[in-house]
Amino acid sequence: MRTFVAVEVSNKDVLESIKKIQSNLKINAKPIELQNIHFTLQFLGEVSDNMLENIQNALNSIEFEPFDVNFENLGVFPKPRFARIIWVGVDKDGAKHLTDLARKVTIVLSPLGFNPDKPFQPHVTIFRVKNKINDITDELAKIKGSSFGNQRVSDIKLKKSTLTPEGPVYSDLYVVKAKQ
User: Has this prediction a pTM greater than 0.90?
Assistant: First the structure.
């Protein structure tokens, strides 16, 4: 099964702000379904049922305190003239906490053979661009500096991703709660 470790975006106000941007940004791109918006701490890919228990045990060893992230600014990968992903970022403190959490995930999963294919960059994808679109620098400039609300991060999840013609369907396999 296809899996990844994530922090879900569950704050309704944040999701509503993202939905508003998805509606107002006039670009030819597929918006991400609100229930699928998350921070990918590490993509694991195809995992056997036998490996699941090892992954769960490794994730269970992670300790972290709850923290807040403030959602702000829009960005693109790789660049505005050739956008493939459009994302919402987070504030400096939130980025530091998320990066630390992603590093902890990497440390515990590395002995099982899971290593990130690229450095972690704290963001949530809000659009995927399938076909080439025009330079969106001006569109992004209109929204630059926007704030989308904040959320308390108090757990991480091992998620299963089932690919369908309508888009991916995510389901929870395991949850690790922050220390209270």
Answer: yes
Count of residues in the chain: 180
Q: Domain 2-177: state its class.
A: alpha beta
Higher-scoring residue by pLDDT: 131, 63: 63
Catalytic residues: 38, 123
Closest-CA residue to 42 (of 85, 105, 96):
105
pLDDT tens for 86-96 read 999 999 999 99
